[in-house]
Amino acid sequence: MNKITRSLIPALVILMGTMLLFAAACSPGADKAEAEAGPAPVRLLPEDQVRMSNDPAKTELFRDAGLGLFIHWGPNSQLGTEISWPLNNASDDYVKRYYALAETFNPAAFDAAAWARLAKLAGIEYVCFTAKHHDGYAMFDTAYSDFKITKSPYGRDIAAAVAEAFRKEGILLGFYYSPGDFRYQFETGKRFAHLYEPDFTAEAPFGPLKKGFADYERGQVEELLTKYGDVFMIWFDGKCEPLKKRSWQVKQDVFIGRGEIPTPEQEIPGRADDRAWESCMTTSWQWSYQPNADVRTAAEVIGNLIHIRARGGNMLLNIGPRPDGTIAPADEALLRELGLWMSLYGEGVRGVRPWTTTNEGNVWLTAKKSDGTVYAFVDLDYGMAGIKSAAGARFTLKSVKSGPGTKVSVLSQAGGVEWSEDKAGLHITVDRTHTIQLIKTPAALAKARGDKAPSLAWGPDWPIVVKITNAAAGSAPQAAPAGAGK
Predict the structure, then answer these.
(1) Residue by residue, what is the 3-state secondary structure of 159-170?
(2) What value does the mean pLDDT take over residues 269-286?
(3) CA 321, 282, 158: angle at the middle one, nearest 5?
């Protein structure tokens, strides 16, 4: 053996050892062992050090955001059913047919970047994506269940794509997670009292890792909070105390939506509440995709947003994507209309808090108390006499007084505002001078003009926003009665 050959022996030994280790790691047996072992342990904050409440700074960030996008999606979209609820009181054979939809779920046209761009255009500040609904189907790659998107014909982690795309657009990331899990109930034969309610004491083993119910769900929460980058929010749809604690053990500053703050569905509380809360509202009447859905008008959605923000809450607007992964045309059109309004007037609903009163008649109010700015949301009167342009309004505010250097303007518009003040209040006259859209003249204006044929106006019949700077509080008239603004 020559000197060169002897010098190569240590290197060859190392190379052969590395190859053997690589082969062992790549063998089916190694995969099985890794799967049985489960994910690597997550570093947890000791239980006695966990603050069982939302981080104050994250709470203020949430309240500033104001407008979120809720996304309910799963294999059920192939039939246009509501998500999960068809399982409630269903026969076993129907349950099997519902679950068989996972075998054909292949959203080949899904484009997370396109979703995120549309959301950004619509003025969305945060997203809440259904990682797992009550049916137990995981739209993320989880080690704790085989009932998941990465086992579907599509085969890719949709939650990961959503996280990356929305974060790239500067939209805060949130995950919806249902503690109720009918898949666990069905496969273990441990039917709970209700589809929606979890039984964290259930010990029947489930999934590849053969975990009891609480450990199965705590493991999935750990995955969601550690595998997808910075997660701003997690939203628990149901009883969730063990999951709240685990969330804050993994990420003490994660903001918890439902489970920690009020989140009414399809309604707006009738009074202002100066704390974090969120009204969840669908674009139509079903959370998941529905063919030929009756979609709300932009005017209704904008009105709801204004009333919610004036009362101190956030609006979480829900869409249900189609089975191929695209957003339904009617929902897309609505989001684009909302985007137009937000591009003009979004300043009035971002980073605001309730004023001393929510509204004076049909004029609704928000405020940036830090700099004395008040925003008044005003419906235009298309038949108003004495206004030169197609639409305008006159109104008086008693809850707002001017101060040194007060200015009154319409957001995104140059001019078109006159104001004065006396003991009766702040009197404001506005008219629209800004060319926004060409639309058919409202019927009331056409009738007032005596038009014999349809004519055009310079914008949709949506509220404008009047900005009042350096304002002070005046007398506070009675706000809208409970239930108003729904």
Answers:
(1) HHHHHHHHHHCC
(2) 95
(3) 30
Mean pLDDT for the stretch of residues 97-117: 98
Distance CA 439, CA 215 (A): 57
Task: Count the Cβ atoms, other than its own, within 10 Å of residue 147.
Answer: 22
CATH of domain 47-348: 3.20.20.80
Structure tokens, 186: 């069905």
Every domain of the chain and the residues it spans: 47-348, 353-473
Contact 211, 171 (CB under 8 A): no
- Cα distance between residue 138 and residue 145, in whole Å: 8
Q: Record the tokens describing residue 337, joined without a space.
A: 């209309």
pLDDT tens, residue by residue, 410-449: 999 999 999 999 999 999 999 988 989 888 876 766 776 6
pLDDT digits (tens, 9 = 90+) for 370-412: 889 999 999 998 766 555 446 889 999 999 999 999 999 999 9
Q: Given the DSSP bridges, would you call strands 392-397 and 373-378 parallel, antiparallel or unpaired?
A: unpaired
CA 426 to chain centre: 37
Using the CB atoms, write b or e for 242-255: b if 16+ within 10 Å.
bbbbbbbbbbeebb
- Which two three-digit tokens encode residue 399? 């809850």
Contacts for 148 with CB less than 8 Å, ≥ 6 apart? 137, 138, 139, 140, 141, 142
